[in-house]
Amino acid sequence: MEVIGSIKKKNSSVQEKEKGLFHVFHKVPSGDGPYVRAKHAQLVMKDPEGSIIWFWKSINGGDRVDSALKDMAVVMKQLDRSEEAIQAIKSFRWLCSKQAQESLDNLLLDLFKKCGKVDEQIVLLKQKLRQIYEGKLFNGRPIKIARSHGKKIQVTISQETARVLGNLGWAYMQKGKFMAAEVVLKKAQMIYADSNKACNLAHCLIKQARYDEARYILEDVWRGKYLGSDDTKTKNRVEELLLELVSKQPPPLQNIPGLDVDDGFVNGLEQLISEWARPKSRRLPIFEEISTFRDQLAC
């Protein structure tokens, strides 16, 4: 009897170990709640539609709501149900913790891009700039840990500010507001320069028929002046933009599109750039967060 009991105990131990390895291998959390069932359907059964049903049950039942809402939105995006994902986040994010709000905003931005909702992107990006000024981003910390291509990286406030401004500049370009895009992209480069924003700025200048300025920027990227200049995709994009430069003839100034100014926002940023090198005694009308936070950023 002792031998039989020992064998059963050993088998039980082996089963527990195999169960643990199963969760590790499939990256599925342990337990038996609706969230665990949702992840099992998503990652093990490869049943995204079924996983959404369980994610809904998890949210309604209060089981790991932060993760359930984010994971469900990601699955919906993969199924081309991005509009539904946007509505789900807007409707249920109030159930999520304060720590989850930033990642939900980032997910919303991706969904807005997927759906071509440029105006919504601009509003949300401006909101993120406000959060930077108020110290609400990164939950009040100067650095956060993020993931990039499966690796953990540190992101500073200055890097995040430049990234948000860079995305805002690109959004303005999608609206044809090239003057607005130029000012925002230049500000982003002052804070944290990289080759992607440099190429976007060159593209913006080309759209305004300012070919010489665009060429200088592209040549700097080609020479490796900016972070990421050696990337193959960057090199290919520089070549494409240079070919576009060659193919274009300067149109009359009055025919240049996109010279409309966005509700005082651009005026303030232009003034900030022109006065960047000297101290100011008054606050700018645009985004007080940029002028107030300026001294804390490595510009």
Automatic annotation (TrEMBL):
UniProt keyword Acyltransferase, yes or no: no
Name assigned to this protein: Protein SULFUR DEFICIENCY-INDUCED 1
Highest taxon listed in the record's lineage: Eukaryota
Keywords from the named record: Coiled coil, Nucleus, Repeat, TPR repeat
A Gene Ontology term for the protein's cellular component: nucleus
Subcellular location: Nucleus
One Pfam assignment: TPR_8
Taxonomic lineage: Eukaryota, Viridiplantae, Streptophyta, Embryophyta, Tracheophyta
Entry's family note: Belongs to the MS5 protein family.
